[in-house]
Design goal:
Chain A has helices at 35-50, 79-90, 130-140, 144-151, 165-176, 184-206, 222-232, 245-257; strands at residues 3-8, 12-19, 22-30, 59-63, 75-76, 96-100, 105-110, 116-122, 212-215, 236-237. Chain A is α/β, with parallel strands linked by helices. The radius of gyration of chain A is 19 Å and the shape is globular. The mean pLDDT of chain B is 94. The chains are: A alpha/beta, B alpha/beta. The interface between A and B is medium-sized, with 18 and 18 residues.
Chain lengths: 260, 425
């Protein structure tokens, strides 16, 4: 019996549909409009992929910041539980999950059953989140995906503050205007380093237990992922679709609660 | 410093609102403790207004200085950190008072309780104290702000030097400080302290301590006969009235209420989670306490930093030594003033006593004192009791820093993980 998990984030809505325990449909859309409409659009896209109708779904679990606005969801769960379930399904050996989204970053200690042993979040400040990278991309006059690839050419990381997005921005500007200017790849590596230091510092507060995984939209940035590995001093697992981990976890919970 | 223009209209409005709430409680009884709480808050603020009208002296009184001395001398206190700020909470005038504090030069990173206090006095909303007494207790803001208030009003001041530890020598030292304080009060008011009366007051205060120990024990019952918001109300009553017969009156009601529920195996709402609450929760959002209990079944059964008294031994013949010992036995005085190990051990022991399943640490963003304890307490609760701790970033006084919806989001996530833990344990 098919089930669905919907993750309504601050910038994107993600859906995963499970049928007979397998992923049969998924989608990621930019949620420019009202939550309910965006969630329905994302679900419709995933249903189309799966060749199903909404009436075929037995359970729909909504998660993310906008979960309470999804009126057609049968159940709501917070992101913590869904992220843990999701990564446990994809990589059961992961014990520390770092999720970096548009506006928040969270670290979760996951147990072998996909439960949350401990967690810590960072939601008071832009630094360490996707919006910080977006503003840096504008500063560097470069699309985000290109920023990630460019940083891999760095000779070394430029010093960029990990304390505050505003300070970091000022430092990047001074790097650009230096004589001679700091090479762009080094600056971008420094930007990634600034984020990674902050987030890994957060993770250390609850302890980092291997294996470590990275998810959320920012995990798609290859340069950032590399720096995170350097900071945690071990290989980091990055799922194929890192944005979909919470939606997958929500779908898995839906499956456990009623679907097969 | 600029002259302050007294404007007690806000305090008068706050009294009107408290009066309306109290009358409503009497017409529509909920709990005895709730009614008694509003009765005491109304009485506190009315007394201040009346004192100003009648020309009676008002003493600016810092945190955790024994109220017994004031009561024995029939003096009217204006508790600087809490009493000054009460109208702000009632009237929700946070923006105005924070703006006043900011224009005075206090940065937003400073403790919001003290910014609120300074803002209130700067605006003239609190009655002018005739003199100010404060103490080096708990944190640097407490140690500094009393002096600032006395400068703002240009009134005499007395500073109590409280030692860090409670060895016999340091207890004796603080008792001497209290003796000097009495001499100061006698000089300022022309009233002489009756030492025999002080002994009686201390003996009565000891009874209240014993009642609070009973309350501590009743919290261990399963289900816990505890109203979440009473956790907050108890803190405020203790600070404003602790050591006086009115505190004894209130805590008796709380104890009897709890005992009646405990004897029937009842609790205010269906208990799903037993939690420790660490540091004061947001005082601007009591609804959050109700929501936790009534909608989520999360009961704040343990409050080690606010409600866990240490052993207080009195010396009937020596009231000042008794009071000096009291400030170190009092929950905040023991856990927040001295070495952090005391706070850690209080949290661990409380968690074991009440069989807590998790803990909520209310991390006030502008409190370096409190936030510095997060890691040692969190780690100890994990290692020694095997319970998780949720850190909720918030502010005790200022609702604009972290909205209630954000706190609820975090709390819901935490309760979900606790629920899963219970299934797997």
């Amino acid at each position: 019996m098919p089930v669905a998990g919907i993750d309504v984030g601050s910038q994107t809505t993600k859906v995963v549909i499970l049928g007979d325990g397998q992923v049969v449909g998924q989608s990621v859309i930019v949620s420019a409009e009202e939550t309910e409409i965006g969630a329905r659009k994302a679900l419709d896209e995933a249903l189309k992929q799966a060749g199903l109708a909404i009436t075929d779904l037995t359970v729909i679990v909504a998660t993310g910041v906008g979960r309470k606005d999804v009126s057609f969801a049968t159940r709501q769960k917070t992101s913590l539980s869904c992220l843990a379930k999701g990564i446990n399904r994809l990589a059961p050996s992961v014990r520390t999950l770092i999720d970096v989204g548009a506006e928040t970053s969270t670290v979760i200690r996951v147990n072998e059953k996909g439960g949350v042993d401990d967690s810590i979040g960072h939601d008071r400040c832009a630094s360490g989140t996707g919006v910080f990278l977006e503003s840096m991309a504008k500063l560097m006059q470069m699309p985000l995906p290109e920023m990630g690839r460019e940083s891999l050419k760095a000779q070394k990381r430029a010093e960029v503050s990990s304390m505050c997005a505003i300070f970091a921005e000022q430092e990047v500007i001074s790097h650009v205007h230096r004589v001679p200017p700091t090479p762009k790849p080094d600056i971008i590596a420094g930007i990634h380093g600034s984020m990674a230091v902050r987030i890994v510092g957060l993770a250390k507060r609850i302890g980092i237990k291997p294996e470590v995984a990275l998810c959320g939209g920012v995990a798609q940035n290859v340069g950032f992922a590399k720096v995170v590995e350097e900071e945690v001093k071990q290989k980091v697992v990055i799922p194929e679709n890192p944005q979909l981990v919470a939606a997958l976890g929500a779908a898995r919970i839906a499956q456990e609660e009623g679907g097969k | 410093m600029a002259t302050i223009v007294q404007d007690l209209t806000r305090l008068e409005k706050a009294v009107d609102i408290l009066d309306a709430i109290y009358r409503h409680r009497k017409r529509n009884p909920s709990t005895g403790s709730d009614e008694a709480y509003y009765e005491l808050m109304l009485d506190y603020n009315r007394r201040l207004l009346k004192a100003r009208t009648n020309g009676e002296p008002i003493v600016g009184w810092g945190l955790l200085i024994p109220n017994e001395i004031l009561h024995a001398m029939d003096l009217i206190p204006l508790h600087l950190e809490v009493g000054s700020s009460m109208p702000v909470s009632i009237l929700k005038s946070y923006e105005e008072t924070m703006a006043a504090a900011k224009s005075f030069g206090l940065p937003v990173e400073l403790c919001s309780a003290h910014r609120t206090m300074v803002g209130v006095h700067r605006l003239g909303w609190a009655p002018r104290p005739d003199f100010v007494v404060w103490c080096s207790t708990i944190c640097e803001s407490c140690a500094k702000s009393g002096g600032l208030i006395s400068e703002m009003w240009n009134v005499p001041r007395f500073f109590l030097d409280r030692p860090f530890l409670d060895t016999d020598e340091q207890i004796a030292y603080f008792a001497d400080e209290l003796g000097d304080l009495i001499a100061f009060l006698e000089k300022q008011t022309g009233k002489k302290l009756d030492r025999d009366r002080l002994k009686e007051v201390v003996a009565e205060s000891y009874q209240c301590y014993q009642i609070q120990k009973e309350i501590q024990a009743l919290r261990c019952r399963i289900p816990a006969p505890v109203y979440n918001k009473v956790v907050v109300q108890n803190i405020l009553v203790e600070w404003l009235y602790g050591g006086t017969p009115k505190a004894t009156y209130y805590f008796k009601i709380v104890r009897d209420e709890m005992k009646a529920m405990a004897d029937k195996g009842q609790s205010p709402a269906s208990e799903k989670f037993r939690l420790l609450t660490i540091c004061p929760p947001p005082l601007h959002s009591w609804k959050l306490m109700d929501w936790l209990q009534n909608e989520k079944g999360a009961v704040l059964v343990g409050n080690p930093l606010d409600g866990r008294w240490q052993k207080w031994e009195i010396d009937p013949a020596n009231p000042l030594i008794s009071l000096s010992r009291k400030v170190y036995a009092e929950p905040h005085g023991y856990t927040m003033h001295g070495p952090v190990e005391r706070a850690v051990s209080a949290c661990v022991q409380d968690a074991l006593d009440v069989k807590a399943e998790g803990a909520i640490f209310w991390a006030a963003l502008t409190c370096p004192q409190g936030c510095a304890m997060i890691k040692p307490i969190r780690d100890a609760l994990k290692e020694k009791v095997d319970i998780p701790t949720l850190i909720v970033n918030m502010d005790v006084y200022d609702p604009s820093l972290v909205p209630e919806s954000e706190m609820k989001e975090k709390l819901e996530g935490f309760l979900e993980t606790l629920e899963e833990r219970k299934l797997t344990l």
